[in-house]
Amino acid sequence: MAFINTVSPYEAEGEVGQMYEHFQGKYGYVPNYSKIFSHRPEVMQLWADLLYGVRRNMDKRRFELVTLAAALAVRSTYCSLAHGSALSEYFGVRDLLAIIHDADDSPLSEAEKIMVNIARKFARDASTVTQTEIDQLKANGFDDAEIFDIAAVATARTFFAQLCEGLGAVGDHAYSALDPRLRAALSVGRPIEYTEPERVGRLYDLEFAKG
Hints:
211 residues; 10 helices
């Protein structure tokens, strides 16, 4: 589903076919967001390179927390579902819901709460970030390079999330299997796709993306 016509996985050839096959190898199906890039697969590669660059110095837990905060801030159901699901590696459903709702019983440390709050501001309206907030991060153990990484991850997410949301990409069928409470909390924008995903029928020997 998208607002623009996209190349079907059944008809894809060349770079588009290779891109689809990469993602099918990773997820078992062709995700809806990849179809958005079917007219410009080279942009997907550029996004993959950027994502690899901005996350390489950040551990996975921090990356997922910052990315989820940014995705929720710009109301991207797709990215919120993806990165909320990824955080299931570290948190149970109850704790994840507390994180999503910024509840008093959130399991995050004080430093992580400050990080998440400023990540939201970087994504939603970076002009509202203040020196005082940056100093708060420093006071809680973040150095300048780490603060750059947080800003880069949060603001990079806005590009991908807004592009996919604006062109009508919806969360993949696989997310319908999430705990209903978590799925509802992460559905902050467009709905989830409930029809079976498309797949390509041939294999390409190509690692299309790094991130």
